[in-house]
Amino acid sequence: MPRSTEEILADLARGVLDLDEDLAVAAAHEAVDAGMDAYEAITKGLVVGMNEAGRLYDEEEYFVPELLICSDAMYAALDVLRPHLKVADQGVKIGCVIGVVKGDTHDIGKNLVKIMLDVAGFEVHDLGRDVPLADFIEKAKETNSQLICLSTLMTTTMDGMAAIIQMLDEEGIRDRFKVMIGGGPISRSFAEKIGADGYADNASSAVRVATELFATAAA
Amino acid sequence: MPNQPITVTFEPDGVHVSAEPGATLKEIAAGAGVALEHPCGGLGTCGRCAVVAVGALEPPTGDERTMLGEERLAGDVRLSCRARVTGDVTVRPLANAHGASAGLRILETGEQREIALESPAARGITGGRPLLGAVVDIGTTTVVAAIFDLETGKRLGSASALNPQHPFGHDVMSRITHVAAHGTESMREPIASEIERLIADVLRTVGQPMRALREVALAGNTTMIHLLLGIDPAPLGVAPYEPAFVDPVERPAAEVGLTGMPEAAVYVLPGISAFIGADITAGLLATGLAEQETSALLIDLGTNGEMVLRTPEGLVAASTAAGPALEGASIAYGMRAEAGAIERVSMDEAGELHYETIGGGEARGLCGSGLLDLVAVLLDAGVLDPTGRLRAEGPHPLAARISDTQGTRVFEIAPGVLLTQKDVRQVQLANAAIASGIEMLLDSAGVAPESVAELVIAGGFGYHVKAAALVRMGMIPPMWLDRVSFAGNTAMTGALMALLDTAARRRAESIARHVSAIDLAGHPDFQNTFVSAMRFPSASA
Question: Which of B268, B292, B307 is the last residue in one of the domains?
Answer without folding.
Answer: B268
